[in-house]
């Protein structure tokens, strides 16, 4: 894909996700109306959808139709939204809403925000268990559920948030920083790729390693690009970052290596991986002009 065609495909997938999520979320007219309205507020207002984009691209590389993985993409995005809702709480990070948008606890209240996170997590697992568009093979469903549980748990997203909270105001080595990033944001990127592998079943089992390596390196590259952009836009950051650990020059050098390693990991797929290669490069280019948190 050219840059233009990649951008067009991204927009089409983002629009598809908006419709898919709106259809799977509870209607705000049903009780409890406040909780349901808050769930929709937190999920439908964030349109970047990096995880679903990677999931759809991986599915394309593996010969799967978008419809076959849409339910998994929705589950992943519900978990992403839940993690952001809880991370924004004053007890954890108290980040301001992006570009002036109010966080869930600001728009509603802290109690509602906690319940929204709980409800979104539960709905994500319900989708993996019962969404009719996903492959009906029980082993595939169990693999998807196990992947999402791993993504959320202490070895993944929640563990990363804990490391992040403990590291505020402390210098981190590059190894410590990447252990944090691999859990906090990297777990969602890996899950987005490996959920598509799971949906493809045994035919794609041999690609689990290369695609997992691609996702791991890409997640770090995306985070590093974000840190560079955020540093240029805002100066010193409160949170641990590649800039604090390495300095700008060494961070840019590491970004080049991570980008090359992530793309090289796709070599076993040959030309079939072109949608993933194009999307990875497009995402990194987009992050060069954005200081949006990952």
What features would you describe in this structure?
With 294 residues, the protein is mostly helical. The protein has one domain (3-288): Farnesyl Diphosphate Synthase (Orthogonal Bundle), CATH 1.10.600.10. The chain is built from 14 helices and no strands. α7 packs antiparallel against α10.
Helix run count: 14
The CATH C-level name is Mainly Alpha
> How many structural domains can be distinguished in the coordinates?
1
Profile the largest sheet: none
Residue runs with pLDDT of under 50 for 5 or more positions? none
Oligomeric state, counting identical vs distinct chains:
single chain
Terminus-to-terminus distance: 25 Å
The overall pLDDT, averaged over residues, is 90
Helix content: over 70%
From N to C, what is the helix and strand string?
HHHHHHHHHHHHHH
Count the strands? 0
CATH superfamily: Farnesyl Diphosphate Synthase
Radius of gyration: 18 Å
CATH-defined fold name: Farnesyl Diphosphate Synthase
Q: In CATH terms, what is the architecture?
A: Orthogonal Bundle
Work out the strand percent: under 5%
